Amino acid sequence: MSKPNIVVIMSDQHTPNVLGCYGNKNVSTPNIDFLAEKGIIFDNAYCNSPVCVPSRMSMLTGLHSHKINVFNNADPLLPHLATWPLLLRTVGYDTVISGRNHLLWGDRLAGFGARLCGDKSEAIPWVKNGKTMLGEKAPQAIDTHIGPDDASYHARHDIDVNAHAKEYLKTAGKDKPFALFVGYYQPHAPFVALEKYFEKYKDMPVEIDELSCDPLYIPFLKALKLDRKIEKEKLITAIRAYYAMVSHIDELVGELYSSIRENNLLDNTIIIYTSDHGEMLGLHGLWHKMTFYEDSVRIPLVVSCPEKFGCGKRIDRNVSLLDFFPSFMELAGVKEDIELDGSSILPLLEGKTEGWNNRVIAETIGITRGQPGRMLKRDNLKLLMYYKSDPVLFDLSTDPSEQHNLAKDKKYSSILTDMIKEASEDWYPEKINEMTDNNLKHIYYHNMVSKLSVSK
Ligand SMILES: [Ca+2]
Question: pTM higher than 0.70 for the full model?
């Protein structure tokens, strides 16, 4: 096999719990399920920050947020940082991006050789019924802009992104290997979907979760204005629309797969489907991301290349988006000599699980500013640490809904001490507060002279 082509399809805010191949019986995702049948499913894949830009920049640089100084969605990627698309170019790859990567400014290529269409597809205005959607109630609202809407900006963006990617595939790989990154905006809020997809779910039974929310996350509820009574019918509509958006993405993935096959690229192309973080979708009364609950921080990860890795396998080891960089280097035969926080998952794909460091670390700047947080998942145990807060420990093998904090259980005192020590290595929350405050000052002055563009 010559140097393989790599296609990374990254949606935005897709929890694996709303995917057929991860056990959801209500959602229709035949194309991603087919990709999984022809590939390998990771049941414990995580992002390294449950926020868009920090997650994506960790994925591209192979480094944690605190090492690249990217904590917020407005933070730029410092131009000297190497990314995996940049390194792939050094060994002859054509690396291109179609669609969303969410960088707001700076070098928005982030090491890719070319961009096929705008990050937010500037050709399509962010409007509904002639009015901008960027009012105070959008785009995160869960009860004001929900349901079927053929004017959905997100849906039209994703269709545009797929069209550019399919056009690229017509000539890709002819004289050099390629890495294509396809970034969809769906199923990110607002929870609106094209009518034909919403129609599939308009009668789907939906149960609204009544699980308790850890007191740690109460400030988050307030910050997102979720600490109020929201009509149940609206929440049900939001969830149905989310499912519909997932089905739309699934169809786009199917189109891309067909295009890869029709252009005779299937045998030598590794296809990856993933997302930048999850979506709480009402669990524990929470929506969107930002927390370390499984539904926020866990992501789908399907890797398909039957010629190379076989198919029909599930891997339960803990892996993360940080692992993309070293994995792609190994696939492309790049002998990189730079510090990386992840590990190549190629041994796992080849069936070798022994020796895998079965842990994942994720970071945030906190539920509210000034309270950085760190998550360490080791095997099935998950530790949450927030600055100046008591630690929280969940055992996901017995408590998958994360309702029982074991941090004060004497049986766990030894392993808790051990995990706190491990999670505290190279984590300095006071320093992170300084860095984020400083970043915000710089951004403030840029905003003084020019409002951040959201149209490009
Ligand atoms: Ca995101």
Answer: yes
